[in-house]
Amino acid sequence: MKDVIATQNLTRYFGNFLAVDHLTFSVQAGEVVGYLGPNGSGKTTTIRMLLGLLRPSQGSAQVLGYDIITQSEQIRARVGYMSQKFSLYHDLTVRENLSFYAGVYGVTRRERLQEIAELIGLSELQNERVSNLSTGWRQRLALGTAIVHSPSLLFLDEPTSGVDPAARRSFWNLIYTLVEQGVTALVTTHYMDEAEYCRRVGMMRDGRLLAMDTPSAIKAQAIPGLAWDVFPGREDGRLLQALQALQNCACVLRAGLSGDHLRAITPAEIQVTTLQEALKKAGIQGARIERVEPTLEDVFLALSNQANAG
Fold it and tell me: What contacts 31, CB < 8 A, 6 or more positions away?
């Protein structure tokens, strides 16, 4: 497959602050790659460099075969970019926004506006002002303005931030509709669960790319054993008491809070009875312990711990 994005030691400083630290990765045609990490980890800075909006301090990159430093105009004419803030004109209607961006990209075929409105599910709302739309509909319109010129590559920067889970799932279905039409997508997000939608996942922390691979492969590489959900009971102080017991147990590699219960990572040879005994010694009887599949949040925490140790 052809690389549509290829970076080599891509680096960006802001003064003495290292925002992006020597990134080297590639994205192939037809992929959906999730670029994960907490806010401030360097995701948006990476995209801005790939778009030629921000000059790298060191390193290089090519997007669609064009150099990000010397050929940035050619890149921006051929890719779609959906920013975190949904760059829409709120006083204009849905159709007027689509028409404006069509003009920016030199799209003269008027039927294209109707095609986009139908694709994003807004054909019945074309005369509605953006200010009257819900966040989920604005999200879809922002995507529509990014694809009005039929780009082969999409940069989607935190596209599902601020929308409800149902709208998030619907939006990912829309992304895959575009992929079926030949589009490649690089999607940044801080929602770890969204990475399960992606063919490959890159995990960022403090400007560094900790890992990039398929979700299944990255779990197998980063999680050294088994994952367990531990429900110690709802009595006052029981959750923290159980957490301390697991953290002090030599059979547990890592333990932490996970909503209303605990998540523990252990070596592969550990049995549930071993965890039960550790809790009993701490005075916790009758805890419910379930073997579970590791999540990408588990992976991120494991990789972060390894980075800190290194």
Answer: 184, 185, 199, 200
CA gap 243, 292 in Å, rounded: 18
| Average confidence (pLDDT) over 109-120 | 94
164 and 68 in a common domain? yes
For residues 10 and 124, membership in a common domain is answered with yes
Dist. CA 76–CA 256, nearest whole Å: 43
Give, to the nearest 10 degrees, the angle between helix 135-147 and helix 111-119.
Answer: 140
The predicted pLDDT at position 227 comes to 93
Query: Are 172 and 255 in a shared domain?
Result: no
On whether both 199 and 240 belong to a single domain, the answer is no
User: What CA–CA distances, in Å, run from 5 to 270, 278, 287?
Assistant: 42, 49, 49
- Say whether both 38 and 93 belong to one domain: yes
Distance CA(252)–CA(289), nearest Å, equals 14
How far does CA 187 lie from the centroid of its chain? 6
| Residue 213 sits in the same domain as residue 100 | yes
Neighbours of 30 (CB within 10 A): 16
Give the total number of structural domains in the chain: 2
Report the side by side order of strands in the sheet with 288-292.
Answer: 254-258, 261-267, 225-231, 288-292
| Helix 94-104 × helix 135-147 angle, to 10° | 30
Task: State the pairing for strand pair 254-258/288-292.
Answer: unpaired
Rounded to two decimals, the pTM is 0.86
- Terminal C-alpha separation, the chain: 34
